[in-house]
Amino acid sequence: MCPQLAQISEAEQSLHDMVNWLQHCHDINVPDAYHAVMRTAEHLFWLEQELMESYDFPSRQSHLEQHARVLRGLHCAHGAVLRGNAAHGRHAGGQLLLDWLALHRETMHAVLSIWISYCDHGLVDHQGPVQTQVVNAH
């Protein structure tokens, strides 16, 4: 197994732990717990980006765009959390994030796992140039 995948699994577990804290802490601690969720998500996404880059993953851009959208949502909700809206923080940084993560794992991570497996078994030369097709719409 790719050692980076083990790091990603650990970071995912850490994210689940932070979400659990967010969901069960006292309202006064929600800002700290929410911040921990954001930082852990950022770290997880960074690990995934490093992995995709090391394997020249051809769908890297769309994968990273999903990460950016989620982080944007978390950062947008952060203002409400800082103004004392604990329920909003628990929703955005809790079940909504976990639902997205489950879908992301079943779709984007599935494709990434197949790519890594192909590369590791010599079925794809991941060190060579990756061919991309550009479509210009006018």
Structure notes:
The chain is mainly alpha-helical and 138 residues long. It is 76% helix and 0% strand. Helix 3 packs antiparallel against helix 4. The chain starts with a helix and ends in an 18-residue tail after the last helix.
Topology (elements, then pairings):
Blueprint: H1 3-24, H2 30-54, H3 60-82, H4 86-120
Helix pairs in contact: 1-2, 1-4, 2-3, 2-4, 3-4
What can be said about this structure in brief?
The protein is 76% helix and 0% strand. The chain contains four helices and no strands. The radius of gyration is 17 Å and the shape is elongated.
Our estimate of the beta-strand percent is under 5%
Radius of gyration: 17 Å
Structural class: mainly alpha
Give the termini separation. Answer: 44 Å
Give the proportion of residues in helices: over 70%
Number of helices: 4
Low-confidence region ranges = 128-135
What does the overall shape look like?
Answer: elongated
Largest sheet: none
- Please count the beta strands (DSSP E, at least 2 residues each): 0
